[in-house]
Amino acid sequence: MKGLLIKDFYVSLRTGWLDFVVTVVLGGIIAFGGARPFVFLPAAYLMMILPMTLLAIDERAKWNTYADALPITRTQVVAEKYILTLILSAFSAVVLAVSALIAMINPMLGDERPDLSSFLSTLGCFPLELALTSVCIPFVFKFGFDKGRIAYMFACAMAGVGLGVFTSWNVKGAPNINIPANILLITVAVSAAVFAASWALSTVLYKTREF
Fold this sequence. Notes:
Layout: H1 2-15, H2 17-33, H3 41-48, H4 50-60, H5 63-67, H6 74-105, H7 116-123, H8 126-143, H9 145-171, H10 181-207
Helix pairs in contact: 1-6, 2-3, 2-6, 3-6, 3-8, 6-10, 8-9, 8-10
């Protein structure tokens, strides 16, 4: 498991380094440029779908066939991708948290400083993005990236619509979208259930896949 994580870490740095840069840059824009935390959501989604890109790279390199000859199980292969997804999601959340906290105490921003409710509402969108990614991964494990990208494109469209709604609300004069705490808790619970179900389904589907 550790070896799989190290492999994907190096591959993600080589092929997805721009995603990390965009994440950090947007965090800096929030902290020192006065941008609202909601502008961070596209970067967070980029990090969460990076494991999808790694699955496509594995497929093109015939890694799946090679992995079957190694002392690792397909269950471990699936588990590593989901753990990696959680790690990258946590990285995005930490960058957002640090940048938002800096912005809230940054005296240079004046009235443009975000408040706590805006930050918490943005952070509450992370489980939704994680759930969208979770919906896509089983399709890729079963059918490969070429066919699974249909679900991937659908999830991207859903995320785009959601971000568009948030943006339009912001433009209309509601810069701080207050989401009730009970709604946030329900969102986290549902997203966790979707993630767990996706993990279990991917494990079952990948075990029966032939290369």
